[in-house]
Specification:
This protein is α/β, with parallel strands linked by helices and 737 residues long. The protein has five domains: 218 residues, 3-Layer(aba) Sandwich (Rossmann fold); 175 residues, Rossmann fold (3-Layer(aba) Sandwich), CATH 3.40.50; 78 residues, Arc Repressor Mutant, subunit A, CATH 1.10.10; 60 residues, no CATH class; 123 residues. 41% of the residues lie in helices and 18% in strands. Helix 6 links the parallel strand 3 and strand 4. Helix 3 packs parallel to helix 4 and helix 12 packs across helix 13. It is globular and about 80 Å long. About 2% of the residues have low confidence.
Length: 737
């Protein structure tokens, strides 16, 4: 490295400069050059946005450590917050040798760390603390009175994988923890967010510093990736028999895809994303069996959240090993920045959860200089017969994948959704704040958490209603002096180790038909009587929902195409559906589709043209009516809720809303929509009047009904987009054809 060419290099501590030389660096990367002068004086909130393995960690820690070394007698403390224990272990491995030479202690902190190391930190809280939000929550709860002293010399708060927190309950918890630390020490140490590039970095800035995002410096790496090679392969499965076993439903395509993966991936390191844990197991089993049958060493390993830590680490170690080749079949557990080395390619089976997710996954490939990033997509469509549903004829899944790849190639990805109320986590943080302080007044808790904190969308009337309801449930109580304390039922909940996590594990509902229990199903959407669910490769109509008993009572129902009512996959954005429509209306071939996918594209476009979907919105399919909106899931679910409120039986089906019933009249629906367009957007309470299973988050069960509806709507529905669509289409009368 030519020192005179890098002013940022000159700003680093001389011992860190020597370390950079020893590591053989020839230059600082662009994000590092830009970050060092902004971070080194600890006066600025910063987001460093760059692709995986672009040097974000060093861009943050080299100036952070330089600042800490300016006064070695009072190093101070930097807290690094990670979404994963595995990332903490990775960063500890990366920082340990450097920090040892600088005599700066590093404390990895999670459930697997010894109590003796933690005791050393409490005796001298200085250096680097690498911690998860849950462990930080436990520290604030259990050592609340010591927090001002523990964090008195806090220099920086560093948040890794910032994009993974935004819009989630865990993210809202993280914002609250950082706010509570600021309040405890009476100042605002700078926050540094490390993130993949997002669709709107200003939203990320507002997340990092709520109500102060405008002052956050955003450093975006300009180093573009190398060449990207994309191939989407199409497959056609025979139509499953009515009584087919669920395990056999995709056997034809699964075998073909596994054979292609076996042929193309052996002899290199790769990641395969099949979109569900069950499919991870199925593909791993099939690929391992192929290795056995061919009498070759196994190269295929599973990785998902239900596996033990030891099994996951075994897969990660296999990917990093230099003496063998490994392909991991995984869920989004390997999307984040765990160090697994470079992989040659990414395989995506079925549409990804989002464009942003696909981009994050693809960031693992093409990291070696001169090597392209490689994406292979696999799309499965059903063979057509005289009973094929219209969406099957449209080849919807293939067009969804094509739209996502198209947007990825243009550099677009979904902006983070950061507008939810997250009242579930507000309850947790209120209980935690009471534990930290040993009691707190209602007014002070409101100022910390809402007025100047991350829950600033919660107004005083809703806050007062929440406190009243928590008091009725004996989760909190108010003593004569006005202090809020834990109630009889609140105290044991806060004292249990499960309290520290803001998110809940996915709850499953028993599915019962008559006297037969069909099994259990994770349900992540609101459910109403008359909705349809897909279970055991059959369609069922919901007859009754017992929320307390976590049971759904169903009756067998024959429809051409059932809605995917389990919790797999992501929330599809409006822009993806709009791009799908553009692909349908185009006559140009999609150059990254193989021959089969291209043939299926022609079929889909012919269907789109035959039904005149460019000019009409209503199409009758058997006894049902399809309303094509080409909106994202949030807006479509809001429109479906509006229809449900008028006695219709709708469910969201991709780019359309399917309305069940022979007597469904297009003119009635249009008249109703025209009425709604002339009125203000409906309130969540009205929209979700007769809807079940709204308790999606960990503490939703504590909310009064009106606040539960508000919170659910803010997280799951896009009422504004739905109402805008109604306004834009108010004068469109249904056209017969």
């Amino acid at each position: 490295m030519a020192e005179q060419q890098s002013s940022s290099f000159e700003l680093l501590d001389t011992r860190i400069q020597r370390w950079i030389w020893t590591e053989g660096w020839t230059e600082l990367r662009d994000a590092q050059e830009l970050a060092v002068p902004v971070i080194v004086n600890a006066q600025q909130d910063v987001i460093i946005a760059a692709a995986t393995a672009a040097g974000k960690t060093e861009a943050a820690f080299l100036p952070v450590l330089t600042h800490m070394l300016r006064d070695e007698s009072a190093l101070g403390l930097t807290i690094y917050i990670s979404p994963l224990k595995a990332l903490i272990n990775d960063q500890f491995g990366r920082l340990e040798l450097l920090c040892e030479s600088l005599e700066i202690p590093v404390f990895p902190w999670h459930g697997d760390i010894s109590s003796s190391l933690k005791s050393r930190f409490f005796k001298r809280p200085a250096g680097l603390l690498l911690i998860t939000p849950e462990s930080l929550e436990a520290m604030l709860c259990n050592r609340g009175f010591a927090v001002p002293k523990l964090f008195a010399n806090l220099r920086y708060l560093v948040v890794d994988e910032l994009h993974a927190f935004i819009g989630s309950e865990r993210g809202k918890q993280l914002q609250s923890l950082m706010q509570r630390i600021d309040v405890a020490i009476g100042r605002k140490p700078p926050r540094i967010g490390l993130s993949a590039t997002l669709g709107d970095m200003r939203l990320a800035a507002d997340f990092l510093r709520p109500q102060g995002g405008a002052a956050v410096e955003i450093i975006e790496s300009k180093s573009s990736g190398g060449e990207l090679k994309v191939l989407i392969k199409g497959y056609v499965d025979s139509v499953p028999k009515v009584d087919a076993d669920e395990a056999d439903e995709e056997s034809q395509s699964k075998t073909s895809i596994a054979q292609h993966l076996f042929k193309t991936l052996r002899g290199s390191n790769n990641l395969v994303f099949p979109n569900s844990r069950a499919k991870v197991e199925q593909y791993t089993y099939a690929l391992r069996k192929m290795c056995d049958d061919a009498r070759v060493p196994n190269e295929f390993w599973p990785h998902h959240g239900n596996l033990s830590r030891e099994i996951r680490e075994e897969t990660e170690a296999a990917l990093k090993a230099k003496d063998r080749y490994t392909t991991a079949i995984c869920t989004n557990t390997l999307e984040l920045g765990i160090d697994i080395g470079a992989v040659k390619s990414i395989a995506q089976i079925g549409p990804p959860p989002s464009v942003a997710s696909l981009r994050q996954r693809l960031g693992r490939s093409g990291r070696r200089k001169g090597e392209p990033a490689i994406l292979r997509g696999y799309s499965v469509e059903l063979a057509l017969d005289d009973k094929s549903h219209l969406l099957t004829q449209l080849r919807e899944g293939l067009f969804e994948m094509g739209a996502m790849v198209s947007l990825l190639l243009e550099g677009w990805f979904e902006p983070p959704k950061a507008s939810g109320l997250h009242l579930s986590t507000l309850v947790q943080q209120l209980l935690s704040l009471i534990a930290q302080r040993g009691g707190i007044t209602a007014g002070e808790a409101y100022r910390i958490l809402c007025e100047s904190g991350p829950f600033h969308s919660v107004g005083k009337p809703d806050y007062v209603e929440l406190l009243r309801h928590l008091g009725e449930q004996k989760l909190i109580q108010q003593e004569g002096s006005g202090l809020l304390l834990h109630g009889d039922k609140g105290e044991p909940l806060v004292n249990h180790y499960t309290f520290y996590a803001a998110f809940s594990s996915e709850e499953e509902f028993r599915v019962v038909s008559g006297s037969n229990t069909l099994g259990s199903l994770p349900i992540s959407s609101a459910v109403s009587v008359g909705d349809f669910i897909l279970f055991a490769a059959k369609t069922w109509c919901v007859e009754e929902v017992d929320e307390e008993g976590k049971t759904i009572y169903v009756a067998r129902h024959i429809t051409g195409r059932a809605p995917p009512f389990s919790g797999h996959g992501g929330r599809i954005h409006d822009r993806v559906r709009q791009r799908m429509r553009e692909l349908y209306e185009s006559t140009q071939p999609i150059n990254y589709f193989d021959d089969v996918a291209s043939r299926l594209t022609v079929e889909g476009r012919q269907t789109y043209s035959r039904y005149a979907l460019g000019q009409r919105q209503f199409v009758r399919v058997g006894s049902n009516l399809l309303l094509f909106t080409w909106l994202g899931d949030g807006a479509n679910e809001a429109l479906a809720a509006m229809l449900r409120g008028r006695g219709f039986t709708p469910f969201v089906s991709g780019p359309a809303i399917e309305i069940s019933g022979k007597n469904v009249d297009e003119n009635r629906i249009t008249d109703y929509f025209n009425e709604l367009a002339a009125e203000p957007a409906p309130s969540p309470e009205l929209l979700l009047f007769d809807t079940f299973n709204l308790s999606q988050e960990k503490w939703d069960w504590t909310l009064p009904d009106i606040l539960l509806k508000k919170s659910f709507a803010s997280l799951r529905l896009d009422i504004a987009a739905a109402h805008n669509w109604l306004t834009a289409n108010a004068d469109l009368r249904p056209k017969q054809g």
